[in-house]
Amino acid sequence: MRRIWDTPGGVHPPDNKAQSLTSGIGQLPLPEKLILPLTQHVGGAAKVCVSVGEKVLKGQKLASASASISAAIHAPSSGWITAIEERAVAHPSGMSAPCIEITCDGEDRWIECMGYPDYKQATPLQLRNLIADAGVAGLGGAGFPSAAKLDRGTHMPVDTLIINATECEPYITADDILIRERADQIIQGIEIISHLLGTPKTILIGIENNKPEAIAALNQQCQGTGIEVVSFPTKYPSGGEKQLIYILTGKEVPSGQLPADLGMVCLNSGTAFAIKRAVIDGEPLISRITTLTGEACDINRNYEILIGTPVSHLLEQNAFNPDLCSRLIMGGPMMGFSLTSSDVPLVKTSTCILAPSHTEIPDGDPAQACIRCGLCAEACPASLLPQQLYWYARADDHERLQAHNLFDCIECGACSYVCPSNIPLVQYYRSSKGDIVNARTAKATAAVARERFEFRQVRLEKADTVRETKREARRLATEQAKITSPTTTQSSGSSAADIIKAAQLRGSTRQASPEQQKAKLERTLMAAEMRLKEAQQRLLQATTNGSADQQTQQLASVEAAKRKVEQTAQRLTEVSH
Amino acid sequence: MITLLTDNTMLAALIALVGLGTLFGGLLGYAAERFKVGSDPIVQQLDELLPQTQCGQCGFPGCRPYAQSIADGDAINKCPPGGQATINAIANLLDVTAPSLDEAHGEEEIRTVAYIREDECIGCTKCIQACPVDAILGAAKLMHTVIAEECTGCDLCVEPCPVDCIDMLPIVENIGQWQWPAPPNPIDLIATTASGMHEDAA
Amino acid sequence: MAFKQVSSPHSHARQSTGQIMQLVLLATLPGLLVLSYQFGWGLLINILIATISAISAEALILKLRNRPIEFYLRDYSAVVTAVLLGLALPPLAPWWLVVVATVFSIVIAKQLYGGLGSNPFNPAMVGYVVALISFPIEMTTWVTPVSLLAADVSHPGLLESLAIVFAGNSPVDGVTGATPLDLFKHSDGLLVEQIYQNNSLFSAASFAGVGWEWANVAFLVGGLALLKARIFTWHAPMAMLGTLALMSMLFWDGGSSNSPGSPLMHLFSGASMLGAFFIVTDPVSSAVSNRGRLIYGALIGLLVYVIRAWGSYPDAVAFAVLLGNFAAPFIDNYTVPRTYGHGQSRRATDKETSE
Q1: In principle, which of A41, C96, C116, C119 could form an S-S bond with A137, CB 3.0–4.6 Å?
Q2: Where do the domains of chain B lie?
Q3: Is this complex's ipTM strictly greater than 0.85?
């Protein structure tokens, strides 16, 4: 038996998983329309590569990854693109975001798929591109693009691969049922990931001990593969990435760093399944397992749904009774968010749709006074002091909030869950986090504005001095002219010589005096030195975490800046002598 | 000497007090120098707190001059773009009670960004000269445009425009910027529930 | 179809502040029963008067503060304060003493600081100390335990008790007397053994002091039940009792005439158990982290012993708790737990340094 570590805190909410496990994975009839938000993942929105009216086939790419952290989007069924516009999406705000709408033709015809059953011949880069092209993003709920996670270019070698099959949220059984029915494919997926990462020494599957069938299925499939299935006592939130890493390895991911900095990669079991599909079968991520549960629906079970299926379609197929429903939740009852409308589509991160009745999840009572009972501090898996954070959040004391490590809060909700005074602690933390981030941005923009304002001020002053000197020179010139030709009345006749003289004078004033030249050179020197410093800094950054290309590039710019500084310094010495 | 002092109590007291005064004064002076707390000049700190819109609504040509003026004793509630948050921050820094915003200098409004209706622009460069942060691009007789990211929303460019082609548009929040609002004040919440204004109080 | 927008988490544990307070009240029952058996009706009358005045005072202040009265009364915190105070005040004390102490607790020590959750000091103990300092004679007159009453004397009946409390009738001679701790303190120059032999309060006792020992056991039982129900953690009470036991063992010195008393006597006399499980565990005025609560409890245990052994009041718990309350924010400052992923915990007053 492998040693497991116990995390601090945690709660034991009733798990409510049995009701959705009475039957296996079901299929839904094809919806009339599919709505695909361009952002279903962490990172940049995907870039649309189709146009309205176009006919698309199932699995055809509709939008491609726009940045290194982004994911492509594919057509979940064949049909026509009928709109590319803002639609309400699954987001706690209830706001809209750009989406692609497909009107299905009912044929569900696949585009030709190119799989790589012989993935062992492929290079890691090829595999990663394959995964990126398939638009795989973390299916556990966070939606981090998998290809980016598997990119080990800038990090230390991976020695531990952790597959997260914990599923610690109550009600959700999507991973559980997937493992029960398709453990073989998940293991294949894990082997692909392992190959891609250069066969890490340790490969662990972490799973809570409330899923004996899934554990048995995994154990059977893992025999002889070197993959170890580790089950541990059920406790919420063991499935948080940081918590799971601690449970399995006893190591903590330092604040502000990633598991990759410890040589670890942590992926969800559903993601491993999607990677198997992407690599071996060549199928992009167009469907996922979603749990539909809650007393407001007659049928509670798991479905393999097409990405983009409207929630309302899923609800209609399962005898949903809106009068019974107290709220509609995407995700679990601890970390899921409430949907304001059922017209939003299911996306890659939709683990669960929970439609609880009023008795299951009643409307909360108003918050009472905090009695500092400390139950929240005992429940906190990150060993924070939730009640102190609460007081500081109410006082908008951003400095203290950060000193009490607000940003290490994973928003698991354990503190609010146990709070006897019913205080919406997590909402306070979210709001404060947003405020702090906004304040930081505001400060950064203010700094830029200040710099530009001061620069302008300097420029205007300079312009003033130049104008002043010119005016002075002109005045001198006229006086000079008066002296040389005291009889102004005559001068009008012999003006040609005067004009030339005046022009010469103007010319001489325009040609800068040695002082002015010197001042100008000094300014140039200063600017050049500044650029040199910046270039050196960039070089330093490039050497610590950049590619070889970037390094040479930065080296060249440092050289150029140095030359410029030398030249200017030389000219300056010439002028001053 | 001793006898002189014991005979003249007045003199003794005088000498003792002066001596003590000099000693402790010296000590204090030394401590003040030795343990001096190095910090930014107050103007710098005040400038850090001001929103840097450079709008001049305070009556000064920019944020730094106003910071200087506050340091010289001016009122701290003349900055509408910063609003109450800025006033509170300054009050905190100066350790005074925070007044509310002086309405004479304007009201706190949502942040805006200048937008030039480009087909109407005649290329007069007047707005370019008015912009305190050089956020408008363009040249004489050529169309101008605002660099939205650099615009502080001060609206100083609106007034000089001879053809009125500059709009101040509010910055709309998109889904990426959305954040959870703070929960309502529990006392208000309960008060409404108790007074029966809340329908589903039960 | 439109649905409600609510922040996660959506499910909640089914335990409310009001329920916690009710459990605390229930847990005081064994102690209350034993005390009532030992000392007669006086305590029940105390609790009744205290509860009525606490609720009225709380309602009045809530009204003045424009707060919903019923909503706040339902948290039962005023009742808990009243019951604890009623248990601590001497039985058969005049009614106005109880009213003054309770009203002071609720109005000055709790509501003026902002109500439940905002009071820096334990309200019941503030009320107790105010009464003790203002009315020392009334506060130090305790009733003699039932087993020590002379054969022809018995505790006053209900009506008689009411008459004593409300009309100021004097109780029969022999009904009132000193408490064991009081007696011990005022028996200087005697060996512990002599004190024990000379006084029936000790000689008739099983292990600590007649009347008090079983009441303390009852409070211990109630407290352990609350601990089992996870109403509070073991840290503060155990630290307090542990320190108290340790100190009394260190200074026991075999029962000489200077000995401040045996560990058993200290643990099971006075308000030791009531304090440890019902006063020290008051979350509002204690330290917040578990480590902090260990220090907080130990500090109170230490102070209880110091005051009992070398102070001039025998009622150490109230003073010790108030001094502990004073120290709580300071303790909190140095006991911030280490957050996941951070090397070391910081002091709470450290502000974020700009990156």
Answers
A1: A41
A2: 2-34, 42-105, 110-202
A3: no
Is residue C248 a contact partner of residue C262, using CB atoms and an 8 Å limit?
yes
All residues of chain B having their beta carbon less than 8 Å from the beta carbon of residue C66 are 191
Counting as contact any 3 or more CB pairs under 8 A, the partners of A are B, C
Residues A313 and A392 in one domain: no
Q: Which fold has domain B42-105?
A: 3-methyladenine DNA Glycosylase II; Chain A, domain 3 (1.10.15)
Q: Where are the beta strands (DSSP E) in A209-327?
A: 227-232, 264-268, 287-293, 301-306
Instruction: For residue B193, list chain C residues with Cβ-Cβ distance below 8 A.
Output: 68, 71
Q: Provide, as residue numbers in chain B, all residues whose Cβ is less than 8 Å from the Cβ of A454.
A: 64
Let me know if residue A344 belongs to a domain. Answer: no
Q: Distance (Å, rounded) from C-alpha B154 to C-alpha B140?
A: 23
Which class does domain B110-202 fall in? alpha beta
What are A445's two structure tokens?
């923009």
Q: Report the gap between the CA of C2 and the closest CA in chain B (Å).
A: 17
CA closest to B200 among chain A residues: A363
Identify the domain containing residue A414 by its residue range.
375-433
B190 pLDDT higher than 60? no
Using an 8 Å CB-CB cutoff, list chain B residues near A97: 174-175
B194 pLDDT tier (thresholds 50, 70, 90): very low
B133 neighbourhood in chain A, CB within 8 Å: 449, 452-453, 456
What is the pLDDT at residue B38?
A: 65
Percent of all residues in chain C with a pLDDT value above 90, rounded to a whole number: 38
Q: Cβ separation of A453 and B186 shorter than 8 Å?
A: no
CATH code for the domain in which residue A303 is found: 3.40.50.11540
Average pLDDT, chain B: 82
Q: Do A404 and C338 touch (CB under 8 A)?
A: no
Q: Which of A453, A457, A458 is the best residue to mutate to test the B interface, defined by the most B CB atoms within 10 Å of its own CB?
A: A453
Residue A564 has pLDDT above 90, yes or no: no
pLDDT of amino acid C353: 42
pLDDT (mean) for C89-103: 91
Number of domains chain A is built from: 3
pLDDT at A490 over 60: no
Q: What phi and psi, each to the nearest 5 degrees, are found at residue C319?
A: -65, -40
pLDDT in tens, B143-173: 899 998 888 888 888 888 899 899 888 887 7
B183 contacts A449? CB cut-off 8 A: no
A459 within a domain of the structure (yes/no): no
Return all residues near A278 (Cβ < 8 A) that are at least 6 apart. Answer: A130, A131, A133, A134, A136, A284, A285
Contacts of C23-26 with C-beta under 8 Å, sequence gap 24+, read: C23/C226, C23/C229, C23/C231, C24/C80, C24/C226, C24/C231, C24/C278, C25/C76, C25/C79, C25/C80, C25/C83, C26/C222
Residue B16 C-alpha, separation from nearest chain A C-alpha, in angstroms: 49
Residues A414 and A519 in one domain: no
Answer yes or no: is pLDDT of A442 > 60.
yes
Instruction: Compute the distance between CA of residue B30 and CA of residue B33 in angstroms, rounded to an integer.
Output: 5
